[in-house]
Model the fold of this input.
Amino acid sequence: MCGIVGYIGTGEAYPVLISGLKRLEYRGYDSAGIAIAGKTVTLYKRKGKVNDLVDYIDSRPVAGHLGIGHTRWATHGEPDDKNAHPHRSMNGHFILVHNGIIENHRRLRERLTARGYRFRSETDTEVIVNLIEYIYLKGHVSATTAIRLALKKTIGAYGLGIICTDEPDTLFAIRKGSPLVIGIGEHARYIASDAPAIMEYTRKVVYPEDDELVILRPDDLTIRTLENEFHEPEINIIEQDIGNIEKGDFPHYMLKEIFEQPASVHDTFRGRISEKPLSLHLGGLFQVLPKLTKADRIIILGCGTSWHAGLIGEYLIEEYARIPVEVEYASEFRYRHPVIRKDDVILAISQSGETADTLAAIRKAKEAGAVVLGICNVVGSSIPRETVAGVYTHAGPEIGVASTKAFTSQVTILTMIAMLLALKKGLLTRQQLHAFIQELQNIPEKMQYILEHNNERLRILAEKYKDVNNFLYLGRGNFFPVALEGALKLKEISYIHAEGYPAAEMKHGPIALIDENMPVVVIAPKDDTYDKIVSNIREIKARKGKVIAIVNEDDDVITQLADHVVKIPSTSMALSPLLAVIPLQLLAYHIATMRGCNVDQPRNLAKSVTVE
Ligand code: G6P
Done:
């Protein structure tokens, strides 16, 4: 949550800050602000989105070769102008932007107040900037030393961009638990919460470790630890195509990302299938495969959509590899007293690789001695760096706040893991593996077919149901997590209340809600429980509910019963969630756009939740 960006170089800072902030808006959009160091350091900040800030700045002066910027997802203090970043220290020596939460901010604020400091905002951030300044003035130390000493007293998570007005040729940056990337350009250095914010300027980047203070000048980059040791920066090259972070001809990133799924799922398995003999390889798990195969139990951790993918993983791994699996919300796991045994393996799933609860849960599991693996999308993010091994999903950058293509790529990886484990345990024959791989290779084409043949149908359905207040989503087996995901997509982007339920649980509560105004989306491609779900649909119809059913193309029974059917191609049981979820994504998308909602930036949400 919150995005930070910064520039120092021989060019102008302003355009870099604004384009960077626009790319980071998915991280929060409660307010935006910049500080530009020209003759003096000028701050512009505004409640609302980056475009509101740009309108506000209009023709005010923005010249300067050093600057920092921020887009906010409010935690401490309302989303208003005064709480917007950047924050300036009381005597004006330091200005900074912050992504994260300072946990001991109250205590520090009290101490600074007792020493005469006055605060303009309610933020935890203003405490850091004043603490740095206090140490700087009191100790007569350099800016570097003041920052190091202040952060040693700070508990919490931060990604910081810092300007010291007495050192106008230097930009400081540091992270702990929040993401940060440093870009190296021609006579220019960049900082950002995420690489897409600076990718149009440079592909050469450094990912600092926690508490490495990065000191940047136009032609220089040095790293010092809080203990004042020098560290050599490790330079990485970003390979991604810039087109991946543009909207192209699509009206929204979310729609673009839904339509990218044939390609993104293909990218997920591409390079992991070898033809002769036909087999699966997950290179990142190679070393830990024996441990995983022998695991007493696999505990899957995640939040939001990643947790839903984990539930599908549970069904698949238990069904095919017969290893017990538990799926936990990372936010619960981190504060419970979970039993973690030495032969348990933890699998953390995260699109961003930065979700604070998931990171904290990983650390807890590591402290208990567990082997922790990751399934992540963002290369170089914190989770892959904090886990012993793992798999990248390679879905490409996901910008829409509501996750779509990251989900199908996570499910693809989990399906591959389930099959690989089943094979290693002798529970899957080579022939069965071949059949699975062949069908996996057909998935992109089948996804494409759904997108081409059902988009318009779902748009028409959305028109019909866009004004209802409630939706119910039902599924059985591994379509139950798909129902949860469908309901989440709808509620997060359209603000319609929606619930996902295992279809058979309907009679223990939700059935009371059903009347002629209640649309019920039933995910019912043919599987072992098809007859059961037919009965559930009859129960809904008996109470006059409106049934929208996702069925296979050869379906006849439900087609007769439901009010509307959306037909998708058949595939194997293991792979069917990948197809069934697409109509649900499209339905949510069309309903939300028809209701005038901002689907890429839904209210109160952010994509990368780096606070608890
Ligand atoms: C936020 C996003 C969701 C995402 C969840 C977990 O809530 O809006 O789309 O599923 O965080 O994020 P992660 O990056 O860990 O998958």
Observations:
- Residues 303-306, 350-352, 355, 358, 401-403, 605, 607-609 surround 6-O-phosphono-alpha-D-glucopyranose (CB under 6 Å).
